[in-house]
Design goal:
The protein is mainly alpha-helical.
């Protein structure tokens, strides 16, 4: 029997009615013939138990997840600080008259409206 989908091992397992009479879900018969009796289905099978243990929602973070969360938080803070600094610099340049349009005219002249 080929149990590679269940165990990950490529070696075939010998199944006989005396010592090892069980087949796991997803296994393939490589050679021979047999009659089977289904004893459990769905989440009650070995495969179902393994999948439910893998998909359990663990609220615990791994060390890598904790470090990545710190890194993304730091990147977000730096990005926000840079964006705010650029906004302040551009507003100061605009309102002090240091910006010019395409033809060389000052874009903002204090006390004048156009």
């Amino acid at each position: 029997v080929d149990e590679s989908s269940m165990t990950g091992e490529s070696d075939h397992v010998e199944v006989n009615s005396n010592q090892n009479p069980f087949l796991f879900s997803g296994t393939k018969v490589a050679d021979g013939y047999a009659q089977m009796l289904v004893t459990s289905v769905g989440m009650n099978t070995t495969w179902g138990e393994m999948m439910s243990s893998i998909s359990c929602d663990n609220s615990e973070q791994t060390p890598l997840q904790a470090r990545l969360n710190k890194l993304t938080s730091s990147i977000g803070k730096v990005g926000l600080a840079v964006a705010f600094l650029v906004l302040v610099v551009l507003l100061i340049r605009y309102f002090t008259g240091n910006t010019e349009d395409e033809s060389g005219n000052r874009e903002f002249i204090a006390g004048q409206t156009t």
